[in-house]
Design a protein that fits this description.
- The chain contains 13 helices and 21 strands.
- A six-stranded parallel β-sheet has the order 2-1-3-4-5-6, sandwiched between helices. It has a five-stranded mixed barrel with strand order 17-18-19-21-20.
- The chain is an alpha/beta fold.
- Bound molecules: S-adenosyl-L-homocysteine, iron/sulfur cluster and FE3-S4 cluster.
- FE3-S4 cluster (F3S) binds next to α1 and α6.
């Protein structure tokens, strides 16, 4: 084949999938693949999937149905499913949609080029093995000379917590932390290519315990080391579990200037009965005390969370406890979901809350969270924040970026400011963003 083959990856789910897609793209670029703008132009289409809720998983099959027609019109095109649905459903995908050529679980991406070669030879390939080695050590680095100013970097994978609603421990496997030296090298390399902000990723990122100089390092140690990299102006991390917010990490929020005042700390429910049934291993009270300690270390921190409503056994009183917890914390931002029973998880077989009841609770919770989000945004008006400009805005002459509190901020300014952190005075709050004016230096 003389022509360059083109690759299109559609990414669903969490930031870890976004990072994995980048690494897969780099792995196939090393094999000569170029990136296609649409699946219509691609010779290989990969769906990097999410299994967290039923809707997310079902989307994959409808998308595969559409791609099947495309494939029929493009001889030689290969269709693959990667990510958490690949891991969870494996061979079932090949049975349900025979147009699929390869199914690759999240821990097998370093074998992707070899698998693609087998698929090209006409084989239906399935690989959902959890290898002993770190896949990232065997995936080539991204070779783009210039990167967007904000990047993701996975430092930890998998989860040992086994919350009774969640598929992640099954789809991503046991907790593994990447060694400190490899992370620092990758971070330095990102910074050398224009990155100014790194978000450290893990399904349980604050449980990080990677091998480093002198023994195992926690996330706080890793953050302090990253903060010493010249040119790395901002550090964030996500997603965290309340049980793993240790004293050192809380202290880092007060001490490390590069660590941004934003924390995504899911609580799921405000009812101790429900938290116990979820196997969350913390209470509403311990979560609230934790928030107090975090706010003592960093008073202006913006809190974000995840909530599940309609978990099996949740009563009206339990739900009221969730509302009270939310009122007490005051979130700047949050995600809330109706419980979705997932095959193979303990809570899936329990008696379910009737759908209309769960839907009504979700609407009430979302209204409260939205009210808090708006109030927090309104509170930013008149304040000076720092913004890392990431790209040109929709209007000519406009640029957009993220504030230290992760609010999207628009200002009028030249494109040459993209990639820089600059002071901005906030003048207005829109539903999902803020607008401001550059503060003259
Ligand atoms: N590791 C993260 C969560 C990853 S999943 C943590 O422990 O916080 C992201 C969010 O999806 C979860 O926080 C939870 O709120 C939601 N979620 C997970 N499983 C779900 C299910 N079965 N139904 C509805 N929401 C779910
Ligand atoms: Fe899922 Fe997070 Fe619980 Fe792990 S800690 S099982 S990823 S919700
Ligand atoms: Fe979804 Fe897997 Fe992430 S289930 S949320 S893509 S870890």
């Amino acid at each position: 084949m003389s022509e360059t083959r083109k690759l299109f990856i559609r990414t669903y789910g969490c930031q870890m999938n976004v990072y994995d897609s980048e690494r897969m793209e780099a792995a196939l670029a090393a094999q000569g693949f170029e990136t296609a703008a649409t699946p219509e132009e691609a010779d290989v289409v990969l769906l990097n999937t999410c299994h967290i809720r039923e809707k997310a998983a079902e989307k994959v099959y409808s998308e595969l149905g559409r791609l099947k027609a495309l494939k029929a019109a493009r001889p030689g095109m290969k269709l693959g499913v990667t990510g958490c649905v690949a891991q969870a459903e494996g061979a079932e995908i090949l049975r349900r949609q025979p147009a699929v050529d390869l199914v690759v679980g999240p821990q097998a991406y370093h074998r992707l080029p070899a698998m693609l070669a087998r698929a090209d030879a006409g084989e239906a390939v399935l690989d959902t093995e959890f290898p002993a080695e770190d896949k990232f050590d065997h995936l080539p680095a991204d070779r783009r000379a210039r990167r967007a100013p904000a990047a993701f970097l996975t430092v930890q994978e998998g989860c040992d917590k086994f919350c009774t609603f969640c598929v992640v421990p099954y789809t991503r496997g046991a907790e593994v932390s990447r060694p400190v030296a490899r992370i620092l090298a990758e971070a330095r390399d990102l910074v050398s290519r224009g990155v100014r902000e790194i978000t450290l990723l893990g399904q349980n990122v604050n449980a990080y315990h990677g091998a480093g100089e002198g023994g195992e390092w926690g996330l706080a140690g890793l953050i302090r080391a990253l903060a010493r990299i010249d040119g790395l102006e901002r550090i964030r991390y996500t997603t965290s579990h309340p049980k793993d917010m240790d004293d050192d990490l809380i202290a880092a929020h007060g001490e490390v200037a590069q660590l941004m005042p934003y924390l995504h700390l899911p609580v799921q429910s405000g009812s101790d009965r429900v938290l116990k049934a979820m196997n969350r291993r913390h209470s509403a009270e311990s979560y609230l005390r934790l928030i107090e300690r975090i706010r003592a270390a960093r008073p202006d921190i913006l809190l974000s969370g995840d909530f599940i409503v309609g978990f099996p056994g949740e009563t009206d009183a339990d739900f009221e406890d969730t509302l009270s917890l939310v009122r007490e914390v005051v979130y700047g931002q949050a995600y809330s979901f109706r419980y979705s029973p997932r095959p193979g998880t303990p809570a899936a077989d329990r008696e379910q809350v009737p759908a209309p009841v769960a839907a009504e609770r979700l609407a009430r919770l979302q209204a409260l969270l939205l009210e808090q989000q708006r109030a927090v945004q309104e509170g930013m008006v008149g304040r000076e924040v720092s913004v890392l400009f990431e790209k040109a805005g929709r209007r000519p002459g406009q640029i957009v970026g993220k504030s230290d509190h992760l609010h999207a901020v628009h200002v009028d300014g030249p494109d040459s400011f993209v990639g820089q952190v600059m002071p901005v005075r906030i003048i207005e709050s829109a539903p999902n963003s803020l607008s401001g004016r550059l503060v003259a230096a």
